DUF4191 domain-containing protein (Nesterenkonia salmonea), 261 residues
Amino acid sequence: MADSRISKQQAKAELKKLREQQKTEKKQRKASRKAKKASGEGFFSRIKQVFNMTRTYDPNIAWWMLLAAVITFAVSFVVTQFLFHWIVSLIVSLPFALLAAMIIMNRRAEKAAFSRIEGRPGAAAAALNTLRRGWVVTEEPIQMDPKTQDAVFRAIGKPGVVLVTEGPPARAKKLASKAQKRLRPVLRDEVPVHIVQSGRGHDQVPLSKLTKHIKKLDKSLNKHEVHEVERRLSTLPIGKPPIPKGVDPWRARPDRKALRG
């Protein structure tokens, strides 16, 4: 009898501890949610931040979002009315309208993010880092002029090896030619090497259109060949650029949360 009483008391004590632990965890979750809201890390806070950031570079963003939402709502409502009741069409059309507005905001936010870093050292590397799976990008330049800070960055994908330059066209072309000569002894002849100049000059690609331009290049390699090329090129030494005092210029990156909305 005494043993059974002790076991019941122990069970009650364990149950009490478990309840206290659950209460503590619940309080911690509430506190973390409040801290996120206070620091502006919530979902709606991020959307507000993205919208405000985009509006500073694109004052008409609200009108573009409204226009996209109205057109999408009207088309969706008319189409779904042939299949459902008008109330159902209304419920279905509203999310599509909100989605259209968010897509417009994301695209405008991406352009705004690139406009903030355009012209700064390392801006091309920041744009290349937005390439999705299937690409291997070097964050550090593979070739650089320390005096002018002209640089060449490398990306490897199915189109082959892509060398992206930063700087005036004439100087950047010479720098890219040097980088290409360094790569050729390691690569096979059938691996194409593309040179893309980023910038606003003649025959240059604007930063906001850089990834789209690279993706349109003809595909020459498969997935396994991409890894093989990356393995070969990884044996080449990459000289680190001299870092100026103060802010690291190679840390210039667009806000990915902002790009995703």
Observations:
- The chain has a mean pLDDT of 77.
- The longest helix spans residues 2-39.
- Strands lie at 136-137, 143-144, 151-157, 160-166, 193-198.
- The chain is about 55% helix and 10% strand.
